[in-house]
Amino acid sequence: MKKKDFIAQDLLGRIYQQLSFVNQKLPPERELAESYGVSRHTIRKALEKLLQIGIISVQKGSGAFINQQTKNNPLIYNSLTEKHYDQINSKLILFRKRRVQLEEKQTFNLTDDEYIWEFHRIRFVDGRGTQIEISKLPCRYFPDLKQKNIENSIQQYVLSKGYEISHYLTQYQAVAINRQESELLKCKKGMPAMKIINRCFLNNGAIYAISEIIDIHYTCTYITPFNKPNFELRLVDDKK
Q1: 206, 44, 236, 66: which is closest to 137 by C-alpha?
Q2: DSSP bridge partners of 213
Q3: In 3D, which of 150, 76, 121, 147 has the Cα closest to residue 215?
Q4: Helix, strand or coil for residue 177?
Q5: Which whole-number Å values give the CA distances from 161 to 11, 116, 145, 203, in the listed order?
Q6: 161-169: long-range contacts at Cβ-Cβ below 8 A with a sequence spacing of 24 or more?
Q7: Residue 72: is its pLDDT beyond 70?
């Protein structure tokens, strides 16, 4: 791990340990540099990461302050959310409107004669092919979805329609890249990747999108409270 990444992770740990920072403010760069035995340049790089993922805010002349609301989200950041949108771009492979199929009808609570949008895209981070994404959205909610919306931010598009995004149900699975995926991402067939399946919910409980993503550079950091009831239940099951 690079020094700047170790320092960013260590500062995250200290923040989530709820250690006492005076006025919820991080120590000055010089003090942090002395504490970690690195240059102030390295400290700035670590703080830049915390700033990008929304953990801190910087007030010129005053220092770096902890954003308290970030502690309410178990996902601190992943390899995409730590990037600004100007570091991410997409290339559309397929975009079509088609009649809903049985599983999609059940998922989106649609009728037999309704339609969904389906799109496939490659996502590039800092110019490097990173993800292949297949997503589906019901036309009922998004009758005017266009290519430019897909190549930018789907979340931004959903919010622009007046909807309120509530939460995501996400499943992760370790996979190996197949031949077609390797050609699209320009990587070796068989290399390890993460398969990410998302169900995306609105505040009214409706699912506005389902997506399946293959990511060859995926990392994520969570804050996970200890679930004592689940732990005790597993102990009981182990004794059977």
Answers
A1: 206
A2: 133, 196
A3: 121
A4: coil
A5: 38, 17, 10, 14
A6: 163/202, 163/203, 163/208, 164/202, 164/203, 165/200, 165/201, 165/202, 165/203, 165/208, 166/201, 166/202, 166/203, 166/205, 167/201, 168/198, 168/199, 168/200, 168/201, 169/198, 169/199, 169/201
A7: no
Dist. CA 172–CA 194, nearest whole Å: 7
Q: What CA–CA distance (Å, rounded) separates 73 from 54?
A: 11
The amino acid sitting at 84 is H
> 99 has which bridge partners?
115
- pLDDT at residue 128, rounded to an integer: 92
Global confidence as pTM: 0.78
Q: How far is CA 54 from CA 24, 57, 87, 90, 165, in A?
A: 14, 7, 16, 23, 19
Pick from 209, 212, 206: nearest CA to 116: 209
Q: How many alpha carbons fall within 13 Å on the CB side of residue 173?
A: 11
Largest CA distance in the chain: 66
Does residue 151 contact residue 92 with C-beta atoms inside 8 Å?
yes
Query: So what's the pLDDT on residue 77?
Result: 78
Q: CA-CA distance, 15 to 68, in Å (whole number)?
A: 10
> Which residues are within 8 A (CB) of 60 and not within 5 positions of it... i.e. 6 or more apart?
none
